[in-house]
Amino acid sequence: DGIASCGAGNIVISTNLPGSAYQWQVNTGTGFVNMTNNATISGSNTQNLQISSAPTNWYGNQYQCITNGIAGNIYTLKFIAYWSGTANTIWSNPLNWKCGVIPDLNTDAILNSGNTLVNANATCRTLFVGNATVDVSVGVNFMIVK
């Protein structure tokens, strides 16, 4: 299962298993380890794990809850930015992105419609262009990582 975040606000993940004892775990690429509460994580021993303002370099982290000794579903964190273009056509204007966050190298950018102008160096993880156009100004570097 995937968890999509725009990089702003809170993320809540709920275990799929009922029970009375909960331990959330994270896999950042080296296997699952138990989580503890900190400035970003709360609810590590409850049904609902809360992640506040996760950095986008957590893209791909996997989360699971051990409920009464049984591993539940695995949830993979992704960061996605949706283009709205409500302010103007400039890629680097946060008002043009639905969550007010400009994509970075760990963010999937989705442009379903409209026109976009990349007039300053920019990077995104992946780029999906539906019924939209993306123009890149001469001399500007626009990098798509994946």
How does this structure look, described?
The structure is a single chain. The chain has strands at 2-5, 10-14, 22-27, 32-34, 41-42, 48-52, 62-67, 70-71, 75-82, 108-118, 122-124, 126-136, 142-144. The model has no long low-confidence stretch (mean pLDDT 95). It has no helices and 13 strands. The strands form 3 sheets. Strands 1, 3, 4, 7, 8, 9, 10 and 12 form an 8-stranded mixed sheet that branches. The protein is mainly β and 146 residues long. It is elongated.
Structure summarized in a few sentences:
The chain has 146 residues and is mainly β.
Using brief descriptors, characterize the structure shown.
mainly beta; eight-stranded mixed sheet; three-stranded antiparallel sheet
How do the strands and helices of this protein lay out in sequence?
Elements: E1 2-5, E2 10-14, E3 22-27, E4 32-34, E5 41-42, E6 48-52, E7 62-67, E8 70-71, E9 75-82, E10 108-118, E11 122-124, E12 126-136, E13 142-144
Parallel strand pairs: 1-9, 9-10, 10-12, 11-13
Antiparallel strand pairs: 2-6, 3-4, 3-7, 5-6, 7-8, 7-9
Helicity range: under 10%
Largest sheet: 8 strands, mixed
Enumerate the spans where pLDDT stays under 50 for 5 or more consecutive residues.
none
Distance between the termini: 21 Å
Rg is: 18 Å
Which term fits the overall shape? elongated
